[in-house]
Amino acid sequence: MENQPSEPSLFLGTLRNGLWLFGVSCWLFGVVDRSIASFADGYLSPLDSVQLFTAVALFVSWLFLKPASLKFRTHENGN
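Predicted structure:
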């Protein structure tokens, strides 16, 4: 039981993971919306492609910001 995370730490870890998952769903919605808007007229303009590339690049960078698991952080800190 000595390796169990404290209550506030557990809450913050859950909150962090929840916010990350919410962000993933928002970015997916944004990329799909931008894709539909870009290809709706059958022509991909340079501005549409820049906006789509920017949305995809930000979504991929958001994926790399995934918080580490709580178990791993506690073991890594030696608590």
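Summary: The mean pLDDT is 85.
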